[in-house]
């Protein structure tokens, strides 16, 4: 082992020590509390003690900052089938924003950029997150504005150690149980975390998305764009991208926009989801609202369009055709509210087995039917969520709250079937897409958008 790697491991051990000790205190007490609550017929994951212990653990993660915050966020995103509800709720309060690292500590990495001397870099960060911070820069000769996404020094060397520390703590605290499904989930999270720090892969994914968007002539709602990658200013730890101005979807300014403009952005987001799956076969899987910007059209120019700007392609997945085929049939059955066909499609998707308990099948089908509600034919949409023109009122439907409540109930079911990794990713991404749409408070029906992509795919595969 090299001197450098030894220091990294020791640093990781030291950083994880506080988290590990937090687990030792919680373990036995949580087990006893769980037994008491089960005996009383109560949900052990929702007791006051469990809630307080979950908050204490998350507070410890927050203090450690760096990769610990990212690990916690990923577990909140993909762990609802393995972690108690009290911990999931607490983990969702982890904030990505953190204290920036002084610019002088980033200089050694920046000086490895081949064209470092060609850049004027603002030493004040534009943003600081758990794994990296962003600085604006300008190319001296051309005046082009860039952003440099700079990975924190030594992060890649300690990220596996940090991950192991969190998993160990959760195990000691008895928040995790051993098992094959759990092992597969932990491995998925580890792989996902490693992708987050692979900037060369992210650069390729960003360039590919930009090329696909530029070649796509079907933007009928609004413009969609991705940043340009400046390879000559990028390294394994620094990603140089074009500066993309815009506002986030939760900006108060958007509430003043006309319904037609908000509808166009929302429809573009839904269309993009299906286009990524069925036209390009690669999905950006992180539903974080911060991964999108909205750039208003030029004032007074009636010909220009608002632009949906896509950011951060560190987490992308390509799907096999068999999976896409089964997913298409699952969504089509959900649109038609055909429960029998839906269950068969879920079996083909790997989310249910042919021997699954009938109650598990019905529970999973209920969840899918609820999640896919906005994609039903207009005449099948719940009338209480429609306006006087028969359009679905996304924000007023409280869809995400209803879906979350149903998911929480499904997990408690004794015959609950753990979804496949790919289905969990799709479901989480779709809820992220729907959340983005709801933030715009639009009114439109999603059936035609989904149908155009899925029908075309199934027709090409089955000749229907």
From TrEMBL:
* Keyword ATP-binding attributed: yes
Could you tell me one molecular function GO term of this UniProt entry?
Answer: monooxygenase activity
Report keywords, A-Z.
ATP-binding, Monooxygenase, Nucleotide-binding, Oxidoreductase, Transferase, Ubiquinone
Q: Does the keyword Oxidoreductase apply?
A: yes
Q: Where is the ABC1 atypical kinase-like domain?
A: 120-343
Q: Which family does it belong to?
A: Belongs to the protein kinase superfamily. ADCK protein kinase family.
The name under which this protein is listed is Ubiquinone biosynthesis monooxygenase UbiB
UniProt source species = Aequoribacter fuscus
């Amino acid at each position: 082992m090299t001197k450098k790697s030894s220091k990294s491991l020791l640093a990781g051990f030291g950083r994880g020590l506080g988290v590990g000790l937090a687990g030792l205190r919680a373990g036995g007490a949580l087990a006893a509390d769980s037994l008491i609550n089960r005996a009383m017929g109560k949900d052990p994951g929702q007791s006051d003690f469990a809630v307080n212990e979950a908050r204490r653990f998350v507070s410890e993660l927050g203090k450690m900052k760096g990769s610990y915050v990212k690990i916690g966020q990923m577990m909140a995103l993909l762990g609802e089938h393995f972690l108690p509800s009290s911990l999931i709720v607490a983990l969702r309060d982890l904030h990505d924003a953190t204290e920036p690292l002084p610019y002088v500590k980033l200089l050694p990495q920046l000086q490895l950029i081949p064209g470092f001397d060609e850049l004027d870099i603002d030493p004040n960060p534009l943003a600081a997150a758990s794994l990296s911070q962003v600085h604006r820069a300008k190319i001296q000769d051309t005046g082009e504005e860039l952003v440099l996404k700079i990975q924190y020094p030594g992060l890649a060397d300690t990220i596996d150690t940090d991950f192991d520390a969190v998993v160990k703590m959760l195990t000691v605290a008895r928040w995790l149980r051993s098992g094959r499904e759990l092992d597969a989930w932990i491995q998925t999270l580890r792989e996902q975390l490693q992708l987050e720090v692979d900037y060369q892969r992210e650069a390729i994914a960003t360039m590919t998305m930009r090329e696909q968007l530029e070649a796509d002539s079907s933007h009928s709602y609004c413009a969609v764009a991705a940043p340009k990658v400046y390879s000559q200013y990028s390294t394994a730890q620094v990603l140089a991208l074009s500066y993309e101005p815009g506002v986030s979807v939760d900006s108060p300014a958007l509430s003043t926009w006309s319904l037609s403009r908000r509808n166009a952005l929302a429809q573009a987001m839904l269309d993009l989801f299906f286009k990524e799956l069925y036209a390009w076969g690669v999905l950006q899987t992180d539903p974080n609202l911060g991964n999108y910007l909205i750039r208003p059209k030029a004032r007074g120019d009636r010909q220009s369009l608002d632009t949906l700007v896509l950011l951060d392609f560190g987490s992308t997945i390509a799907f096999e055709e068999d999976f896409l085929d089964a997913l298409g049939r699952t969504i089509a059955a959900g649109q038609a509210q055909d429960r029998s066909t839906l269950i068969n499609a879920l079996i083909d998707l790997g989310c249910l087995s042919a021997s699954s308990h009938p109650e598990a099948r019905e529970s999973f089908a209920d969840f899918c039917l609820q999640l896919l509600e906005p994609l039903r034919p207009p005449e099948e949409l719940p009338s209480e969520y429609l306006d006087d023109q028969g359009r679905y009122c996304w924000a007023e439907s409280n869809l995400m709250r209803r879906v979350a409540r149903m998911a929480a109930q499904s997990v408690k079911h004794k015959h609950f079937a753990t979804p496949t990794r790919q289905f969990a990713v799709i479901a989480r991404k779709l809820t992220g897409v729907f959340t983005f749409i709801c933030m715009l408070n639009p009114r439109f029906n999603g059936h035609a958008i989904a149908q155009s992509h899925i029908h075309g795919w199934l027709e090409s595969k089955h000749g229907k």
